[in-house]
Amino acid sequence: MRQAIETLVTLGRVFGFALEAVWAYKLRSIFVSAGIAMGIAALTVIVTSVDGAQRKALEIVDMFGPDAVFVLGGDIKSRAVGKRTLTLSWEDARRLRQSLPGAYLVVPMRAKRSIMARYGGKSKELPVVVGSTAAYSEVWNWPLAEGRDFSDRDVALGTKVGLIGDQAAEELFGDESPIGKVVFLGDLPIQVIGRLSYRGFSGGGSSIDERMIIPLTTLTQRFNMDRKYFRALRVKFHDPERMSVHVENTRSLLRHLHGLKDGEDDDFTILTADEILKFIGMLKGGLVVFLGVTATVAMLVGGFVLANLFYISVSERTSEIGLRKAMGAKAWTITAQFLFEAAILTIAGALIGMGLGLGLGQALTRLGILEIQFSAKVFVLALSSAVAVGVIFGIRPARQAARLDAVAALRGDGS
Q1: Is the pLDDT of residue 232 over 70?
Q2: What is the pLDDT of residues 293-322, one digit of tens each?
Q3: d(CA 121, CA 109)
Q4: Is residue 265 within a helix (H) or strand (E), and if so which, with residue range?
Q5: pTM of the model
Q6: Of 56, 142, 315, 350, which residue is most buried, by most CB within 10 angstroms?
Q7: What is the pLDDT of residue 31?
Q8: 29 is in which domain, residue-wise?
Q9: Angle at 384 between CA 380 and CA 386, to 5 degrees
Q10: Together in a domain, 117 and 190
């Protein structure tokens, strides 16, 4: 017990010597910490972005639903510049409703971006106004908090009614119910008949709770858009366990309706929850590979900088080391001091790197690419990686210092 206490006291003194040395050699300390910081910044982005991608994937799948497909006009996977994206027509929607096995809901959609909404003295720029047929809330599994969805009659007549997202309603109406109120979209008056429940999902720099949904016919008529074609279709099926069959049936029917021959590319894109998961997986993989290489290189560079500077430090501090050994310092305390110095510098670099990494992560979040959230896992992984680099690259210079002969070191000869 007594020996253990004496060892701890000795280590405390050695740690104090290490702190003094780090402060005395400021330029060396800055170089080492900066090198480690770059690697830890990349490592922080890797861990937080992968966690964020997983959360985003689960959000998307939950919102998308396992029983639906989303069909976009144009082949977004291999679209040539200038190639048509408006390839889905009202006839496609009609035939899908009539002939697609297992389908029970087909809802065409189109969107108009960046429209100013006004109510009373308040205004808000809506990132998107969606035009849809009836059953928008049902087809997207998005219940109404109050009011009703618009009907087939509303679509047929192009009535000026709409649904409003929760965030848009809060900003325009505050605590008031929006039902029955008239919102101006540009110069178009829209009576709010339903308020969508809060969803909390964001992407592309905006929240889906900021949108409004109006009849597709109203959107195309009032904003002078092509009335024959629309941008997307949402289709829901019975028997979600047979989604692969549903997808193939949808593809075959649309290719037939569009007169596509064997060997010709699709002029549409079918997305499912599985497709979205694959895309998120590719995104995660790309981030891990790119940032992993960056982190590894930066950490190795930081480690080599640390080792080289410590070798130089040993040669510069031979007299100090010789004096300590002459006064009774053991080899292991000399080794421990240099390892403490390495650990202090790499931990400082880790803390700086985590700050940089979180800053980069916030930039990704603002771009709507991923949600970055700091966690205890990031903290532990960053610190343990930094300490490992310090020990691995600092051990040889530390041992070299410990092996110095006291007399030769006092003369400044080092051996």
Answers
A1: yes
A2: 766 777 777 778 777 777 777 776 777 777
A3: 31
A4: none
A5: 0.62
A6: 350
A7: 74
A8: 2-60+278-411
A9: 120
A10: yes
CA 47 to the chain's CA centroid = 10
Give every CB contact of residue 255 below 8 A, 6+ residues apart in sequence: 266
Dihedral pair phi/psi, residue 145, rounded to 5°: -75, -30
In this model, does residue 354 exceed pLDDT 70?
yes
> Is 222 in the same domain as 303?
no
pLDDT level of residue 81 (50, 70, 90 thresholds): very low
Do 154 and 260 share a domain, yes or no? yes
Q: Which of 266, 293, 312 is the last residue of a domain?
A: 266
Sign of the alpha-carbon dihedral angle for 142, 147, 150, 151: positive
Count up the domains in the chain and report the number: 2
Amino acid identity, position 24: A
Q: Which residue has the higher pLDDT, 149 or 20?
A: 149
Q: Which SS3 state, helix, strand or coil, does residue 232 take?
A: strand
Q: Is the pLDDT of residue 365 over 80?
A: no
Which uninterrupted H or E stretch holds 39?
A: helix 26-64
Residues in CB range of 123: below 8 A, 6 or more apart: 116, 117
Instruction: Answer yes or no: is pLDDT of 280 > 70.
Output: no
Burial 341-350 (b: 16+ CB within 10 A, else e): bbbbbbbbbb
